[in-house]
C-alpha cells in the first residue's frame, strides 16, 4: 500500500516491495536530484516532516539522508537541516556502469577489467575469469564472518601480523603438505590476493629494465602491472603440456630473465597442466640461467589431483629452493575476502614481509580470520568438491555446444576454461558481442604482445545462458 505525498520532493513508498524503505527513499531522492527536479541549494523537508509525510520512523529518514550525504547528494548544515548539495565535477557521482558506450573504448586490458566488473546492470560474461556468485557458498562465508564477529572486539581493531594471521599460516602449512610442499608458517606471507603477491615478488626480485617471462597466453592483468614497474615482459609459447622448452631455452640465454611466472596446474586460459617431463626441464633451465620461477596456483582446488588425475607442481619438485609458490581463495571461495599467500624460502619470505610492510603495513586480519575459520572447520574441502562436481556436470554438455558453434578447442579434464578458436579476429567478435550485451574475452588480451588473435577464453560456468549460443550462431554463421 502506498502513502500520499506531502511534498513533491518526497517519493511514493511501497511496503510490498522487496526493497527496504531506506533504499527506496535514497534511490528516489537521488533520481530527483540527478534529474534536476531538486536543485542545488534546495532545503529538504525536516526529518520530522519527512517521517510524518511518509509514515515512517525518524530513524528511517535519518538513515536515508545520511546515505545521500555519503553519496554526495545532500549536505548537512548544523542547526539548519539538510540541503541539496551544489554539483561540481568533483562531487558528481559517476554515471551507472553501462551508461557510456563501451564499444567505443579501446579494446585492451583495462577494457576487459572495466566490463567484467560491471555490476549495474549485470550482463552475461562468457569470458569471465570468475565463477558466478550462485555457484559459490555465500552462507559458508557469512557463518564464518559471524563466528569472527563474536570474538572480542579488541582483536579486530588493530593491525594484523606482518606475515599474516598465524593460525591461517599454520592451516596453510597443512594444505601445502597435502600437495607435497613442505613449508612451515614462517615461510608463508599472506597477501591481498594473488595479484598483490605477484606485485610484491616482482618488485623485490626484479628491477626496472630487467626481464620477466610469462606464459603466452597467460593471465592478462600482470602484463600491464609488470610493464608499469619498468620491466620487460616476454611471452613463452604455452603448449598443451607446458611451455615450449626450445623457445624457453633460447630466450633465457638471450634475455637472462629474473623471473618466470607460470601456471603449472589448470593454466589460465587453457585449463591445461604441466607434464612431469616439462616440469623437470623448466627447473633445469631455471638453474642453468639463474632465474626464479613464480608458480601461480590460484586454480589449485579446481583440480581433483590424486592417482586418477595426478598434478605436477614445480614447488613440490623443487621444495621452494628456486620456486616461489602463490595461492589464494578468490576464485574458489570469495573474491571479496582478498586473501592470498606466498610460500617460499625463509630468507625470501622475510624480504617479502618487509616489502609488504612498506607497501600496505599488513593485510586485513579480519578476512584472514574468516578464511582460517572455513579451513580449520573442514568446510572448505567439501565446498571445493562441490565446485568440481558442478564443473564436471556441465563440462561435456558445454563442449558439445562449443563444437556446434563451430569453435575449435582442446578439451580439458578439469578446470573452468575453454580456450576456443573462432577462426576470426576475436577483437571484432567481442565488439559485436558487447553491442548485444555480452562480454567476451578476446585472445589478444592474453598475450603480452596484444596482437589480434582468433582465440578467446570461455568460462564453463558463465556460458550456460542460451543468449550466448544464439549470438555465436548469428555471428559465426
From TrEMBL:
Determine if Ribonucleoprotein is one of this entry's keywords: no
Q: Does the keyword Protein transport apply?
A: no
Q: Domain of life, per the record?
A: Bacteria
Q: Which residues form the signal peptide?
A: none
Report the residue ranges that make up the HTH gntR-type domain in this protein: 19-87
One Pfam match: GntR
Q: Which UniProt keywords apply?
A: Aminotransferase, DNA-binding, Pyridoxal phosphate, Transcription, Transcription regulation, Transferase
This entry's Gene Ontology molecular function terms read: transaminase activity
Give the family per the record: In the C-terminal section; belongs to the class-I pyridoxal-phosphate-dependent aminotransferase family.
- Output this protein's name: PLP-dependent aminotransferase family protein
